[in-house]
């Protein structure tokens, strides 16, 4: 299988602080978001490294459900997306806009 596009990559590391230093020193990257997911006993440092072009969408079955979690998708412009979303989810669209609009953070 040839990889066509990457959505995201996750790494489990023993020392998050040391890993963040490596990313900063070698790639000039600093995390955009950091948080602890106590229920999963993990700490997360999230880096946004690229925009992803429109690609074919796959809605595979969720093994836990035995069916896809979603049954439909569509590509819409921002104005139409805004009209489709609830106020809670509109906040996510505004956040995504702000992430795309700003340059990549470098040290």
Explained architecture:
The chain has three helices and four strands; from the N terminus they run αββββαα. It is of the alpha+beta class and 107 residues long. It folds into two domains: 7-50, no CATH class; 52-101, no CATH class. The strands form two sheets. A two-stranded antiparallel sheet has the order 1-2. A two-stranded antiparallel ribbon has the order 3-4. The longest helix is centred in the C-terminal third of the chain and has 15 residues, at 87-101. 0% of the residues are buried. The mean pLDDT is 78.
The count of domains is 2
Q: Approximately how much helix is present in the residues? A: 25-40%
β-strand amount: 5-15%
Instruction: Report how far the terminal alpha carbons are from each other.
Output: 36 Å
Structural class: alpha+beta
Number of strand segments: 4
Give the rounded overall mean pLDDT: 78
Layout of strands and helices, then pairs:
Blueprint: H1 16-27, E1 33-37, E2 42-46, E3 61-62, E4 67-68, H2 78-84, H3 87-101
Antiparallel strand pairs: 1-2, 3-4
């Amino acid at each position: 299988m040839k990889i066509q596009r990457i959505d995201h990559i996750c790494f489990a590391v023993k020392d998050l602080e040391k890993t963040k230093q490596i990313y900063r020193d070698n790639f000039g990257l600093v995390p955009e978001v950091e948080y602890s997911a106590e229920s999963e006993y993990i700490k997360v440092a999230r880096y946004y490294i690229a925009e992803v072009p429109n690609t074919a969408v796959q809605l595979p079955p969720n093994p836990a459900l035995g069916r896809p979690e979603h049954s439909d998708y569509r590509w819409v412009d921002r104005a139409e997306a805004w009209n489709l979303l609830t106020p809670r989810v509109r906040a996510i669209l505004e956040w995504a806009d702000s992430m795309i609009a700003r340059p990549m953070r470098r040290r």
